[in-house]
Amino acid sequence: MSENIDILISAQNDSGLKSIAQKIKSGQRISDEDCLVLFEHGSLAFVGSLANLIREKLHGDKTYFNRNFHIEPTNVCVFSCKFCSYSRLYANKEEGWELSIDQMLDIVKSYDGKPITEVHIVGGVHPKMNLAYFIELIQKIHAHRPDLHVKGFTAVELDYMFRKAKLSTEEGMLQLKTAGLQSLPGGGAEIFHPEIREQIAGDKVTGDGWLQIHEAAHNLGMHSNATMLYGHIERYEHRIDHMHRLRDLQDKTKGFNTFIPLKFRNSNNDMSNVPESTITEDMRMYAIARIYLDNFPHLKAYWPMLGRQNAQLSLSFGVNDIDGTIDDSTKIYSMAGSEEQTPAMSTEQLVTLIRQVKRQPIERDTLYREIKDYSLIENENEIAFAN
Ligand code: V47
Ligand code: SF4
Question: What's residue 355's pLDDT?
């Protein structure tokens, strides 16, 4: 692999790209200016090979997935993000839903006896679902199934809950942690830079507010993920600013597990006039994120949004995790035009997807502790699956 990179570097005529590649090869951090050069001038093959070098240095061929399921308490939302195809102002028979605690517990109970390790809880921001409501939900899930890792609530939901409860971020987070919340998903980050954020998500938590909430969680020993919604009206400079803020916070807390670039999908929303990014641009985005975010251990392609074949392709462009939702009733992408209308993949299918591109399938828990190495299993029948 290292010889291939030497060939790539010596074949490079652009002296700027050549010196960036040398930096990456020797494990140095790239600057924002370098990152812009990669976005503007790096070919897919160039950034892809460098990202793959880093991916293989960090993880070899290991490709992680986990067994989880999603609960979406509601799609009623007080905010009005322009890219959102999913939220409704109020619940009605056709399009809006709001689940009671018992209904959500029934979803949890439907996985009894199945080897699921995580529940992922995210939804719209319902004016009546407050901190006390979610504390009760988490406590009940925890009491029913203490081994299940509860990953829940975007910084957008948390900011609203804490403000309504008139609590500081630290106090609110502590209450949720005490109830049994173990980590935070990466949603709600969008693009931090106010020039873009104000246009696409102007009424919800600011970029600084999002970062402050994740910092508070990290300070309590909780881990979290970070996303970035790209491929709409932002410029490369905004993507770099976004990743810069994440890299800085990660230097401080080391609390992020995974970065998840989310490709903007344009169906059924107020930004349907904005064209979607190409697959080439998506793969360049993954690769450059892998190169720039040198302190993030993992890079995830969320297959229900990207589609399974593109997620498979991303494994050659820096990605080492393809989520692994066993049964994803998430509507946020299907309503925005994703290929995956009812996203669900069995463990067997996930393992096959990873094996087809000669990588090593590893089932992990939320914190990336390895549960099972599927490359050691010869007999397909031994791949037990949960659904
Ligand atoms: O914040 C909304 C995005 C996010 C669209 O942490 C859209 O493991 C594309 O963050 N086109 C929520 N994206 C989902 C999320 C997530 C998903 C899976 C795993 C994890 C994790 C986190 O969905 C929102 C927003 O950025 N989104 N609408 C759209 N039209
Ligand atoms: Fe509400 Fe989230 Fe949709 Fe924004 S993206 S409108 S916060 S559900």
Answer: 95
**38 and 81 fall within a common domain:** no
pLDDT at 62: 98
Question: Which of these, 349, 365, 382, lies nearest to 182 by C-alpha position?
Answer: 365
Cα 269 from Cα 267, distance rounded (Å): 6
DSSP code, position 31: P
Same domain, 48 and 177: no
Residue 342, pLDDT score: 64
Among the bound ligands, the one closest to the CA of 204: 2
Q: Which two tokens stand for residue 235?
A: 């410029």
Best of 74, 87, 157, 334 to mutate for ligand 2, by most ligand atoms within 8 A of CB? 87
- Cα 350 to Cα 324: distance, rounded to the nearest angstrom: 7
pLDDT at res. 385: 47
Cα(81) to ligand 1 centroid in Å equals 12
Pocket of ligand 2, candidates 77, 126, 198: which has the most ligand atoms within 8 Å of its Cβ, to mutate?
A: 77
**By residue range, what is the domain housing residue 319?**
62-385
Residue minimizing CA distance to atom 10 of ligand 1: 187
